[in-house]
Amino acid sequence: MKKGIHPEYRPVVFQDPSCDFAILTRSTIKTNETIQWEDGNTYPLAKLEISSGSHPFFTGKQKLVDSAGRVEKFKRKYSKKS
């Protein structure tokens, strides 16, 4: 590998503030924020909007969407006019 052309691969904390979920992993993401982790070390922090801690597929909590209203609107719009 050539020296100086690859991004730094380092430990980074990814945090989802909406559900207080955080995971320490390795990444090349660039960030200006830092956080003190459970082991006492300070790591770069990347905030997420959605994670496995808040995604409906993983939590089993689906948000109910007004699908009946959308279906009726579709039927009205594309039904045959006689």
Key words describing this protein structure:
82 residues, alpha+beta, four-stranded mixed β-sheet, 2 helices, 4 strands, elongated
Describe the overall structure.
This protein is α+β, with helices and mostly antiparallel strands and 82 residues long. The protein is built from 2 helices and 4 strands, in the order ββββαα. The chain has helices at residues 56-59, 67-78; strands at residues 10-16, 21-27, 33-36, 42-47. It has a 4-stranded mixed beta sheet, with no helix packed on it. A hairpin with a 5-residue loop joins β3 (33-36) and β4. The mean pLDDT is 82.
Low-confidence segments, given as residue ranges, are none
Helix percentage range:
10-25%
Order of helices and strands: EEEEHH
Mean pLDDT, all residues: 82
Sheet with most strands: 4 strands, mixed
| Oligomeric description of these chains | single chain
Count of helical stretches? 2
Per DSSP, what share of the residues sits in E-state strands of 2 or more residues? 25-35%
Which strand order do you get reading across the main beta sheet?
2-1-4-3
Number of strands: 4
Distance between the terminal alpha carbons, to the nearest Å?
A: 71 Å
Determine Rg (CA atoms, Å): 22 Å
Shape: elongated
**Based on helices, strands and strand pairing, what is the structural class?**
alpha+beta
